[in-house]
Amino acid sequence: MFAHQAVLYEEALESLNIQKSGLYLDCTFGRGGHSSGILSRLNTSGRLLALDRDQEAINSPDATRLSLDQRFKLHHACFSELLGFVESQGFKNKINGILMDLGVSSPQLDIAERGFSFLRDGPLDMRMDTSRGLSASQYLQQVEEQALTKVIFEFGEERFAKRIARAIIEQRQKQPLETTLQLAKLIEDCVPFRDKFKHPATRTFQAIRMEINQELSEISTGLKQAVEVLAPQGRLVVIAFHSLEDRIVKRFIRNESGLKNNPGRLPVKEEDIEKGILKKVGKAIRADAQEVKLNPRARSAVMRVAEKL
Questions:
Q1: More exposed terminus of the chain, fewer Cβ within 10 Å: N or C?
Q2: Global pTM?
Q3: Shortest CA distance to 107 belongs to which of 31, 203, 7?
């Protein structure tokens, strides 16, 4: 059906609880896997809005094909801009379901020129939106050692963060790091112990990518805005691939569910207790063995679902 099969495809579509004439938002169009599935379940009255911060996704043949469908509208934007886009279309508080598929996409990793992969040589870029912000090379040329150590340790959960940051700073004083394989080799040379299941550069590349794209803050902002645009009983479906991403999603759903300022035994009227705006739907969903076999990237995927009250 598609050259690139979307992760947790059937599970995501089922969790959205799609109404044939409903209005939906896919916050990460990618190559249109989930979007195509949503459209296939809508009738002529249904609508699908989609976002992607990656201009290559916007310009892809998949986007061109789906844009011929009058029910579909794609916009170049990141999570933190979803509220403005939905409002501009006149659909605030009317969206019946929102899907957020977090992290880096397979096409981004596969294209060496994007600079995401430590296995393919290309410019050290890593920006999801190449029209704005610093590239990874520019970031590494100016970041302070202490700040870089913190990024690699916190976002990459890399135990040799200090050693790697020092090596990067020493290298840039001689010559700027400009390619992915330059950085990968530098990390490989300075890490004393190798994980037999992971390339030594895996965690550092992930950390730098998350920092320059501000991925975690984008998720936090996007989740808040998603709740604002959802209609009552609208579904929020989020697929995360990293423990830090999933922790943000899990805490957000928990914090927006139940009693937000329960005073315990204090004598307060029930109407004065602020109630959450979401309810958790089911347990976290993971890819089964068959999907992981067909698509190894699905191995770390965790999907969480909530419904607006």
A1: N
A2: 0.91
A3: 31
Tell me the Ramachandran region of residue 32: left when phi exceeds 0, alpha when psi lies from -120 to 50, beta otherwise: left
**Can you list the alpha helix ranges (DSSP code H) found in the chain?**
9-15, 33-40, 55-58, 61-66, 82-88, 106-110, 136-142, 145-156, 161-174, 180-190, 202-212, 215-229, 243-255, 289-294
Cα separation, 122 vs 275, in Å, equals 50
Look up tokens 């009058």; give the residue.
70
CATH class for the domain made up of 107-212: mainly alpha
Q: How many angstroms separate the CA atoms of 101 and 238, rounded?
A: 6
User: What are the φ/ψ torsions at residue 301 (nearest 5 degrees)?
Assistant: -70, 135
Over the chain (309 residues), the average pLDDT of each successive run of 10 is 71 98 97 96 98 95 96 97 98 97 83 87 95 97 98 97 98 96 97 88 96 97 98 98 96 86 60 76 96 91 97
**Phi, then psi, of 98 in degrees rounded to 5:** -125, 130
* C-alpha distances in Å from residue 122, one per residue of 126, 194, 212: 10, 24, 17
Structure token pair of residue 301: 């995927």
**Are the C-beta atoms of 35 and 305 separated by less than 8 Å?**
no
268 Cβ contact partners less than 8 Å away, ≥ 6 residues apart:
none
